């Protein structure tokens, strides 16, 4: 009895790649290069447009607190006060939003029933779709009047602390109010990233903690939070990047002033983005170039924050 051998198929050559793989790899590489080119183009545009005012500026651009950039002969302006207000507002938003976002993410992933978790996740994500101008209207129309008695109480009871020294603003249009509004705006970003990281915690880690007699909170503290620490930090930094560049909501809440103050209950501080939005309609000549120079500083700050976030996330994933 004879048997016929099954036809053998030669394996594909190692040096030969399919057309689809080559096309996809080229498309992905081209997309990455395009993003870098766009980023470089934005940076080059800001530098070129900002250079006339920077070269003619008679003040220290980094530390000076004044802004008299429309004078053609001797413009004098600095971004120091604006950079301080920008970082302060974003820092307040980060301190307020991060604990709440982590708590919401933990509740959605480990405590809430499935239907409630789905509803809460949808509602939190919906916050990201609300326009910033709506947040600004909510801040000046509802939140600020409600905070007036709160600020008065803080000034009365905690006035010995420089952050809450009185008298409190009668309109509550302060850097603290802006920070609260920004905290609500960045809440969905931090919550979404934290929720995704908490979902990725290995089931074996959680079951091992529970098998050793740990309660649910102890399991979260010992297994979930250490695993998701880098993701939470990365999400917080990305949220801070959003807070640094927010324009309309901050411009509607804060008054147009250039004061460096740690007092959270008085009006005075302003952010770079808010200052640009308020000054640009009336800017001429060197004034427009000076505002673009301020935008260049904001671009650099935001870029550094986002690069730091990506580095932290990548390092955490590598360690995991």
Automatic annotation (TrEMBL):
Keywords: Cell membrane, Membrane, Phosphate transport, Transmembrane, Transmembrane helix, Transport. The chain crosses the membrane at residues 22-48, 81-112, 119-144, 164-190, 285-305. Its main location: membrane. Residues 83-309 form the ABC transmembrane type-1 domain. InterPro entries: MetI-like, MetI-like_sf, Phosphate_PstC, Phosphate_Transport_Permease. It is found in: Cell membrane. It is a multi-pass membrane protein. Part of the binding-protein-dependent transport system for phosphate; probably responsible for the translocation of the substrate across the membrane. Belongs to the binding-protein-dependent transport system permease family. CysTW subfamily. This is Phosphate transport system permease protein. It comes from Nocardiopsis lambiniae. The gene is pstC.
